[in-house]
Every structure is written in C-alpha cells, then in structure tokens.
Write a structure and sequence with these properties.
This protein is α+β, with helices and mostly antiparallel strands. The chain has two domains: about 5-115 and about 250-255, Diaminopimelate Epimerase, Chain A, domain 1; about 125-245, Diaminopimelate Epimerase, Chain A, domain 1 (Roll). About 15% of the residues lie in helices and about 45% in strands. The chain is built from four helices and 17 strands. It has a 17-stranded mixed sheet that branches. The longest helix has 13 residues, at about 75-85. The N and C termini lie close together (about 10 Å). Bound molecules: the ligand N[C@@H](CCC[C@H](N)C(=O)O)C(=O)O. Ligand LBFN2T5F binds next to helix 2 and helix 4. Keywords: Amino-acid biosynthesis, Cytoplasm, Isomerase, Lysine biosynthesis.
Length: about 260
Amino acid sequence: MEQTFYKYQGTGNDFVMIDNRQQTFDKSNTKHIAFLCDRRFGIGADGLILLENHKSLDFKMVYYNADGNESSMCGNGGRCLVAFAKQLGIITDKATFEAIDGPHYATINDNIVTLQMQDVNTVDKYDTHVFLNTGSPHHVQFEDHIEDFDIQTKGANIRYGSPYNEAGSNVNFVKKISDATFAVRTYERGVEGETFSCGTGVTAVAIAMNFLGETNQNLVTLQTQGGELKVSFAKKGDLYTNVCLIGPATFVFKGSI
Ligand SMILES: N[C@@H](CCC[C@H](N)C(=O)O)C(=O)O
C-alpha cells in the first residue's frame, strides 16, 4: 500500500512526517522506518514522526530516529510537527500535544514555532563537560576549533564511551561567540553522525551556559550548521522553567512511497 508522507525541516534537521490518525502505519517494522529515512535508498531524513490522535490534547507525537528506533524527545521534530498539524488543519496558531517526555504547548506565527520544553532541574557538572536531559540526554562541552574538527570521530567516542555506552547520549560541541550567542555542532545518537541542528541539544547548551555562568541572559541565540535557533527560560533556584525553543519549521515537499 502506498504511504503518503510530508517532508519538513527545522534549521536543517529534517523529518519524514506521517499522518497516522487512522493508525495504519506499522510501528513494529524498524527496518522499514530506517529505509524511509535512508538518504540513498529511501526518502532521506534524520528522523520520522507520526502525528496521532490524543484524547484531550490536539495531537500526539511519536518519534523515531533515522536508525528506525523510537527515541526520546526531538525538539526540532516537535516544532516541525506543529507546522504539519497546521498544514493538516488540526490547529491554527497554537497547539497542545503529548510527546514521550510529557505534554507540550506551542505557538506558530508564519513559520516560526515556539515550543515549550519540559523543566530542567538537574545539571551535572564534570571537569570536561556538563550533562543534562532536556527530553533527550545531552553531553555539552567546549570546542575551540568548532569549525574544523573531526566531529564524527570525537562525537562517536563520547557517545559510545563511558558512562553512556550503548544507551548513548547526544554530544554537543560549543564555542562562545558573545555573552548571549553560542555556536553549536551536535553528534546525534540514533543518526550516528552530525545533524545540521538539534533542538533538545541547543536547549541543553543554553541552559548549560547559564549554569556555568557563561551567560547571564535568559534569551540565548544558538548558531547551528542549519541556521539560528533561540532558547528562552526562567531560573527559579535550581529549576529552569518556562523553557522555550524558538525557530523556523519549514515544509519541503509531499510525496508517496
Ligand atoms: N534532533 C532531535 C533530537 C532527537 C533525539 C536524539 N537523536 C536521541 O535519540 O536522543 C532534536 O531536535 O531534539
């Protein structure tokens, strides 16, 4: 049976979107999901997202990494899903939806989506890096030569190394540009390589930079390989709350496969 799909991207982090409100998509077929995401043999994407019905919210998000496995929260994917829900006529300018890490609230204005992320109450600081979970696990460390270093090798070593091992972590390399601007490159678990941008990743970087005292701003700009994102938050004691990921979410094309 032919499957209709929609392709979206948010600062170059790209996704295959499928309207699964009729529950026709076979979620158990990991190899098929990986095939759809394959850039040579399939459509090509960093991940695949199902939009499903929800009993009390506007919709539900089900996210798979490019390797075909369901994974934790995807910030850019969530923003793109809001734009997809608007294209389908499910919402107009605001949305509530459930993802694997809980309920989310979002607004959309033209193609700019502001997505509220979960609160963060734990940031672990080590000698070389910071670790925190923004819906997905993120290792954050400084890299002076961010423009030209071997992110594939260095990212994979950290992602597969101790303490993360097989379960893994996403790995973000950061360079400070100014008090409220940071350049970020991310090695993503489940893609097993660099993506042009990672929403939960830049969220983790913004919070980590505040935690480390590298910025005292509560609106931070993150420069990624695929464009700029902004993250805003409020700090209440040890809690980062009202965390918002802000940036473009763009429809690319529709097809069937
Ligand atoms: N690209 C995503 C992160 C997706 C999840 C990640 N690969 C994982 O498995 O942890 C984002 O925009 O947040």
